[in-house]
Amino acid sequence: MNLNEYLREAGADEGLISVIESVFEGIKKISHRLRTTDIGKVGSHNSFGEEQIAMDVYADQVLSEILRENENVSVYTSEESAGELNFDHGEYAVCSDPLDGSSLVDVNLAVGTIVGIYKAQNFANLKGKDQHASLMSTYGPQTTVFLTIKKGVLEFLLNEKGEFVLRRRDFQIGPGKMFAPGNLRAAASREDYFKLTNYWIENQYTLRYSGGMVPDVGQILIKGKGIFSYPGYDEMPEGKLRLLFECAPLALLVQEAGGAASDGKMPILEKEIKDLHQTTPVYLGSKEEVDRCEQYLS
Ligand code: F6P
Predict the structure, then answer these.
(1) CA 23 to ligand 1 centroid distance, Å
(2) Ligand 1 pocket at CB < 6 A
(3) Mutate to test the pocket of ligand 1, among 55, 241, 243 (most ligand atoms within 8 A of CB)
(4) Residue with CA at minimum distance from ligand 1 atom 8
(5) Nearest to 120 by CA among 61, 72, 153
(6) Tens digits of per-residue pLDDT, 119-158?
(7) What is the Cα–Cα distance from 177 to 197, expressed in whole angstroms?
(8) Which residues have a Cβ under 8 Å from the Cβ of 89 and sit 6 or more positions away?
(9) Of 6, 12, 62, 275, which alpha carbon lies 20 to 30 A from 187's?
(10) Per-residue b/e over 126-153, b at no fewer than 16 CB within 10 Å?
(11) What is the DSSP track for the chain?
(12) Cβ-proximal residues to 23 (8 Å cutoff; 6+ apart), any chain
C-alpha cells in the first residue's frame, strides 16, 4: 500500500491528503540532498555552480517552497524562521523542524524532519492536541517516515522507485527497560534527575541514545518500549527542545502508539503555544516510564 492509498482508506479529507503528500515530497528532496551532497563544502559552490548552503537552511527552503505552492496551506513556520509565512489561501497550518539534529550531519549519524499539521490560520493559543496529523522522517541507512492522522501510527519506507510504501502499522508502546537520557549534564545540579537516571542504571536499563531526538523516539516506537528525557536545569529552566516544532508532533506520535508525553507535570499535548519558539522539558515513551519521571521530578 502506498501513502495515497492509505490516506484514502483512512478517510482523510482531500486538503489533508494534499498537505501530507506535499510534505512527503519535500522529505524525498531533503533525503536526496543529504545522501548526495558533500556537506563539508558548505559555503562553496557545487559542480553546477550553485552555492552550497547548510542542510538545515536547505531543508527549510524545500518545505516552505513546496507548501507555499499548496493551496490548502494557510501558514508555515519552522524552527529556522523568526516568524510565520502567511499565504493567501488554505486552511492547514504547518510547522516543522526541517532538520532536527543538524549537528549530527557531518558525523553521518541519523537526522530527521519533524512536522505538525493543524487546521488554523496561525499558531497562537493552539495546543498539541489540536494537531490533525504529525510526522517525522528519519534519514538513516534508509529514509522512513512515521505518520499519524490520529488513527494510530504508520511507518512508510522510501523505496528504490522513489515511492513511499507502507512498512508497518501496528505500533504499540508498553513496559520495557530502555532509556535515552538527554541533557545528562542536568544531573550534576539536579538531584531529582540524578536519582532518576540512577534508577535506570541500577535497574539495568539498556542505553540507546544517539544525540538526535528523531532516531531516539523512532527507536521507542519500533522497539515498543523505553523513555526519552530532556529536562531543564538552572541555565535553561525550560530545557531547549521546542514545544511547537519538536515536542508536540512527537508527543502525538508516541501517544497514538499507546505511550505518553509529559513536561514532568502535565501532558505535552495540553500545553498552550504562547510563543513559536517556546521550549519545554520533555519526557516521552511508555506510560510507565513517563509516570516514573513525573514521580521522581515532582
Ligand atoms: O536540537 C535538537 C536536538 O538535536 C535533539 O535532536 C537532541 O535530542 C538534542 O538536541 C541533543 O541535545 P544536546 O546537544 O544538549 O545533547
Answers:
(1) 23
(2) 100-101, 182-183, 211-213
(3) 241
(4) 213
(5) 72
(6) 999 999 999 999 999 999 999 999 999 999 999 999 999 9
(7) 12
(8) 71, 72, 73, 74
(9) 275
(10) bbbebbbbbbbbbbbeebbbbbbbeeeb
(11) -BHHHHHHHTT--HHHHHHHHHHHHHHHHHHHHHHH--GGGTTSB-TTSPBP--HHHHHHHHHHHHHHT-TTEEEEEETT-SS-EE-SS-SEEEEEEEEETGGGTTTT--EEEEEEEEESSS-TT-BGGG-SEEEEEEESSSEEEEEESSS--EEEEE-TTS-EEEEE---------EEEE--GGGGGT-HHHHHHHHHHHHTTPEE---S-HHHHHHHHHHHT--EEEE--BTTBTT-SSBIIIIIHHHHHHHHHTT-EEESSSSBGGG-B--STT-B--EEEE-HHHHHHHHHHT-
(12) 63, 66, 67, 94, 96, 115, 117, 135
Count of Cβ atoms closer than 10 Å to residue 229 Cβ: 28
Tens of pLDDT along 208-249? 999 999 999 999 999 999 999 999 999 999 999 999 999 999
Rounded distance between C-alpha atoms, residue 103 and residue 105, angstroms = 6
Grid coordinates standing for 12?
482523510
